[in-house]
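Tokens for chain A. Residues wanted.
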């Protein structure tokens, strides 16, 4: 197997350019409106579905592209357009990844299409792992799943769920045997219309406002045994192995997050690039003291640093995506590296973009203030920067860093 090659194939370039065109012509012009409205941009998702961008086929094709770079490249373009709308378009992908990582082929065949719907009847998926009192501590999940006469009954509250409560299909991580901590957890599909599942609080957020984020309340939610991802036989074998002192294998929620980290990093790269490009173009046109502000060393050097950091973040993201696609283990926590660097780069670059625009950058007349608000979440969700450093620290030292 060859090594990592950052040169994009013709098919990936073609998709990149196609997605960029949609981001430029449809997503970006709508960004400010849906940020102000703080509502799910259904018309934009519908347009994405009509051209095949929001579809199971698109996500699957890009996921299985042999270089592993197709999905992060596409995500960068979408989020270059707008992060809030972008997350509304790709948010279902996290639920799809959870299903694909933990489910059987039969479960994937049944539920993946239900998450996306069709171009004429768009649906959403939601992945529900976080809880109000757990945060990044997946081991503290309290949502309980109890087996009862062939069914599973779930009770608990999930929070920070993208598309939570409005999704057609929810994938929920719950504790089956609390005494085993993360090793006693499993994931469940909650079919559409299941009694007992409801939306709790919808959050009003600092950024990514066009993406729906809410609590999901599970009150005696009863689902058939077939909704346990992977099946009961596999779960029982794993629990028995753990009780006897054996290894449990990778935990359900963490498997999903590790799989999607390069894609999340790519979102942050898109935001960072958007901020850099806007500031660069502004510096080329804005005149003060008789010359373009980009002619000042202070501005030119800052733009140079911004461009360099964006490229660093992109290359780390592409390396992690290539490794994941080609079965290379993240021995140095390369997935976490990509998420850490891309998220912090997006925050820093967009802040410098505001600085370059000065007072104008602090107003909503220019999009850089929105880019900056959108960027901050990438140092928080799907594992905070602190959690990423903890993971990397453990990987590079081989020690149980706490």
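Reply:
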């Amino acid at each position: 197997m060859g090594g990592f090659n950052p040169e994009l194939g013709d098919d990936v370039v073609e998709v990149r350019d196609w997605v960029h065109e949609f981001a430029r012509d449809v997503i970006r012009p709508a960004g400010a409106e849906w940020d102000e409205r703080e509502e799910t941009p259904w018309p934009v998702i519908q347009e994405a579905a009509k051209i095949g961008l929001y579809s199971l086929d698109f996500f699957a094709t890009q996921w299985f592209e042999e270089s592993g770079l197709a999905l992060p490249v596409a995500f960068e373009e979408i989020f270059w357009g707008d992060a809030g709308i972008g997350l509304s378009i790709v948010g279902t992908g996290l639920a799809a990844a959870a299903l694909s990582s933990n489910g059987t082929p039969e479960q994937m065949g049944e539920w993946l299409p239900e998450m996306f719907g069709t171009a004429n009847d768009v649906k959403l998926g939601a992945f529900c792992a976080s809880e109000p009192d757990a945060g990044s501590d997946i081991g503290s999940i309290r949502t309980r799943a109890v087996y009862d006469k062939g069914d599973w009954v779930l009770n608990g509250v999930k929070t920070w769920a993208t598309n939570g409560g409005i999704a057609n299909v929810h994938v929920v991580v719950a504790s089956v045997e609390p005494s085993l901590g993360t090793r006693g957890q499993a994931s469940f599909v909650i079919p559409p219309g299941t009694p007992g599942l409801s939306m709790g609080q919808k959050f009003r957020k600092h950024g990514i406002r066009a993406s729906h984020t809410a609590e999901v309340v599970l009150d005696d939610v009863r689902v058939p045994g077939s909704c346990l991802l992977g099946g009961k036989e596999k779960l029982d074998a794993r629990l028995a192995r753990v009780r006897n002192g054996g290894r449990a294998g990778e935990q359900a929620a963490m498997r999903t997050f590790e799989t999607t980290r390069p894609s999340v990093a790519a979102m942050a790269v898109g935001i960072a690039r958007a901020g850099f490009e806007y500031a660069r173009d502004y510096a080329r046109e804005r005149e003060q003291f008789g010359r373009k502000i980009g002619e000042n060393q202070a501005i030119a050097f800052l733009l140079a640093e911004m461009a360099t950091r964006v490229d660093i973040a992109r290359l780390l993201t592409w390396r992690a995506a290539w490794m994941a696609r080609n079965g290379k283990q993240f021995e140095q926590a390369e997935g976490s590296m990509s998420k850490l660097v891309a998220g912090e780069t997006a925050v820093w670059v967009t802040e410098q973009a505001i600085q370059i625009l000065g007072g104008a950058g602090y107003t909503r007349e220019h999009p850089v203030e929105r880019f900056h608000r959108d960027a901050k979440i990438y140092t928080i969700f799907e594992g905070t920067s602190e959690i990423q450093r903890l993971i990397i620290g453990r990987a590079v030292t081989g020690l149980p860093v706490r």
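The longest helix spans residues 252-285. The mean pLDDT is 94.
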